[in-house]
Amino acid sequence: MLLPIINQFGIDRVHFDLIITSALLIGIAASPMGIGLYIMVEVGKVPFVRGAIAV
Question: Residue 20 to residues 15, 43, 49, 54: CA-CA distances in angstroms?
């Protein structure tokens, strides 16, 4: 979907993929809305605050 746009602007696909992957990982891990944080504290059976500090 974004491939024609990044090709038109001359952006390297590998660089673009790394930026998008990094942004998605930050979004998954970031509190307070990061779903990864909620999953981590539930699986690890730790309090939310302790899990947030660890991230």
Answer: 9, 27, 28, 24
Q: Per-residue pLDDT tens for 11-52?
A: 999 999 999 999 988 887 776 667 878 888 899 999 988 887
Pairwise CA distance, residues 31 & 12, whole Å: 31
Cis peptide bond upstream of 4, omega within 30: no
Find the DSSP H helices in 1-55. Answer: 3-9, 13-29, 35-44, 48-54
CA–CA distance, 13 with 3 (Å, rounded to integer): 8
Which is nearest to 37 in space by CA: 20, 55, 23?
A: 55
Spatial separation of the C-alpha atoms in residues 13 and 27, rounded to whole Å: 21
